[in-house]
Amino acid sequence: MTLLINKDFVCHGIRVTIALPESYDATKTYPAVFLNDGQLDYLGKLADSVILIGLEPKNRLDDFTPWYAQALRPGSPDFGGKLASYHDHLFGYIFKSIAQEFRLDESRMAYGGYSLGGLAAISSLYSSDKMPFIFSICGSFWYPDFVDYCQSHQLLNKSCSVYLRNGLTEGANHKNRLAKAPSFAKEVHERIKKQCLSTYSAFDPYGHHDHLQERYDAFSDWLIEEWKLWNAAIGDWVGKREEK
């Protein structure tokens, strides 16, 4: 489906696009999904009830990578490692400007992405506790030294719910470290699960670029159920307080 973009702006080279539910009511609060690379059409399942926010940096090889690393192939650009600055802008001015204009339910916000966008989102677990839900689809956990980083650092955002999905045949036709992408992903999944109790971890039989809509739909189904459970838990808590 094609979404109606209600607002877009640029902040420090990051293009932000916002799609509101068709029945958006400015007097109500809404859950929100922040999606790296801004491919909001993949989240069509959520469009009727969720504020969708796309994030497109000028150079994803720089802004989605946690530190500098040389290119995997000769002639390709190196990875710039400017993720910390990207997250400063996202969790700072960008978030504040959106929250001032639209009513966000801050208990039901998700941040994530696909490939390097997923790597960026999982990296945020170590530096920010802003988002209560984090997701990664085919996260690029083969990134040089990322497994070692996960093994030697503690999560800052341990209380969030995390969604992890990778493919068992990712990198099958490569001869560099991408060929071991599923092994790197399994190590990262296991490390996250040990530190974050609310972690969903899945591996499908596909390659890196396969069945993306199916993968996004599976994530959307998971998120809808998580938010239902969250609402039920909040309702129980409020009920017990009123009984007192």
Describe the structure.
This protein is α/β, with parallel strands linked by helices. The N and C termini lie far apart (48 Å). It has helices at 60-63, 83-101, 116-123, 146-152, 181-195, 212-243, and strands spanning 7-11, 14-19, 30-36, 51-57, 104-114, 133-137, 161-167, 199-204. It has an 8-stranded mixed β-sheet with strand order 1-2-4-3-5-6-7-8, with helices on both faces. The longest helix is centred in the last third of the chain and has 32 residues, at 212-243.
Explain briefly what this protein structure is.
This protein is an alpha/beta fold. It has helices spanning 60-63, 83-101, 116-123, 146-152, 181-195, 212-243, and strands at 7-11, 14-19, 30-36, 51-57, 104-114, 133-137, 161-167, 199-204. Helix 4 (146-152) runs parallel beside helix 5.
Structural topology:
Elements (H helix, E strand, L loop, with lengths): L6 E5 L2 E6 L10 E7 L14 E7 L2 H4 L19 H19 L2 E11 L1 H8 L9 E5 L8 H7 L8 E7 L13 H15 L3 E6 L7 H32 L1
Parallel strand pairs: 3-4, 3-5, 5-6, 6-7, 7-8
Antiparallel strand pairs: 1-2, 2-4
H and E order = EEEEHHEHEHEHEH
Number of strands: 8
* CA-atom Rg in angstroms: 18 Å
Helices and strands: which structural class? alpha/beta
Helical run tally = 6
Terminal Cα span: 48 Å
Strand % is 15-25%
List keywords for this structure.
35% helix; 244 residues; eight-stranded mixed β-sheet; 22% strand; single chain; alpha/beta
